[in-house]
Amino acid sequence: MRELLLEIWTSMRRNKLRTFLTGFSVAWGIFMLVILLGSGNGLKNGVLSNFGNYAVNSINLYGGRTSKAYKGYQKGRRIRMRNSDLEILRREFPEIDQVAANAWYNTQTVTYNGEFTSAFPCGSLPNTAAIEGIKLSAGRFIDEIDIAQRRKTMVIDEPMRRVLFKGADPLGKQIELGGSMFTVIGIQQGDAQRNSSVCYIPLTTGQLVFKANDPEVNNIIITVQGIKTDETMANFEKRLLRRLAAEHRFAPDDKSAIWIDNTMEQYKNIMVVFAGINLFVWIIGLGTLLAGIVGVSNIMLVTITERTAEFGIRKALGAKPVSIIRLILTESVCITAAFGYMGLVSGVAIMEIVNRYLVTPQQTADGTLSIFLDPTLDLGVAVSATIVLVAAGLIAGYVPARRAARLKTIDALRYNK
Questions:
Q1: How far apart are alpha carbons 232 and 243 in whole angstroms?
Q2: Residue 61's beta-bridge partner residues?
Q3: Do residues 337 and 390 touch, judged by C-beta distance below 8 A?
Q4: Of 234, 258, 270, 323, which is the most buried if we count CB atoms within 10 A?
């Protein structure tokens, strides 16, 4: 094997320019493949980061307005969801895993120790944090005891902490919200430089303090399990709408009465789009690489033509066709692998530089959207590129090797005589 590699090295040194130009086409093909895959991965990560830690198997329900008359009720009637709807969903739909809800109230003034700001209070249930991916930097979120006892507890965000507490620890402090005193139990992660603030309070407390114990909620969030197909999901949404229609007295086919925002469907559609993008990138990248393979194959044919007499002598001395095939294939694989890895390393380096210096991760909690994030490649892509390189070398060398093995000894010895 050592002699074989030494012979290949000698041949490559004897034809430096030709070897470089041949290998460059392969390196460029792999480089472009890595850049395209990295860019597609960055686009995918950027879009998916906008989901944050939000449960992708969740469905949001919003009360709307009826679009048609039904049993004496005029169209245009507003549908208000209530606490009773939460119990219906928990009790009558086995597909539902978790049920949460939010109720947003008017902007309130928040004061502490002479400092003040404004905030949007949101009455929530304990599992809202898990479903919506709310992360805390300190303390805890609302729990079941807060709900049951209608405690005046509050989870504040970083902007409120910055304005009211000036860097001090707010946990356990009493702050005034809309004329009532609330105890800070947690701090939500996020961008402290945002102008607007949001605070979470127990849903039952919010309904009591701000709505005179009105059980209305603005949206209900559910997570589902065991739904695998589009048909099953469509049937589930139809049954869900029909049951809520019976509860609120609107037409079962009136989709304007209750708005259904299916995060699972959105996530699945996005994944289908990126699967198509990934396939397109591989096709373009492999097409570029194919051009390099054709170049390698052509150069190997030229090499065989130049070494025809040499192969004739080898055969005359007893060399078998398989040894000639092994020589040509090994040389082809060495050229494609060496230059291909140069292109692979260069592409990965460019993506790492882009990720380090040009891409800034963004917080999605403040309403901004990330479009391009972490355009790096994982180990699976590197392994796939390695397999592509080896296969490229074998493909590039197969036709020349087969031609060299079929040379007749007498014809090869007469070549260039």
A1: 17
A2: 220, 260
A3: yes
A4: 258
Rounded Cα gap, residues 208 and 244, in angstroms: 25
Backbone CA torsion sign across 67, 69, 74, 80: negative
Q: What is the H or E stretch that residue 198 is in? A: strand 198-202
Residue 369 predicted with pLDDT over 70: no
Q: Is 181 exposed, middle or buried (0-12, 13-18, 19+ CB in 10 A)?
A: exposed
User: Average per-residue pLDDT in the chain?
Assistant: 82
Give residue 204's identity as a one-letter amino acid code: T
Q: What's the start-to-end Cα distance of the chain, in Å?
A: 32
* pTM of the predicted protein model: 0.67
Q: Are 29 and 288 in contact (CB under 8 A)?
A: yes
318's tokens:
């007893």
pLDDT digits 0-9 by tens, 206-242: 999 999 899 999 999 999 998 888 899 999 999 999 9
Residue 61 has pLDDT above 50, yes or no: yes
CB 182 within 8 Å of CB 102: no
Q: How far is CA 146 from CA 134, 139, 319, in A?
A: 18, 14, 87
Contact 250, 79 (CB under 8 A): yes
φ and ψ at 119, to 5 degrees?
A: -150, 155
According to the model, what pLDDT value does residue 67 have? 93
Q: DSSP letters of 345-412?
A: HHHHHHHHHIIIII-----TTTT----S------HHHHHHHHHHHHHHHHHHHHHHHHHHHT--HHHH
C-alpha Rg value of the chain to the nearest Å: 34
The pLDDT tens digits for 274-327 are 888 878 877 877 777 677 677 777 776 776 666 667 667 776 777 777 777 777
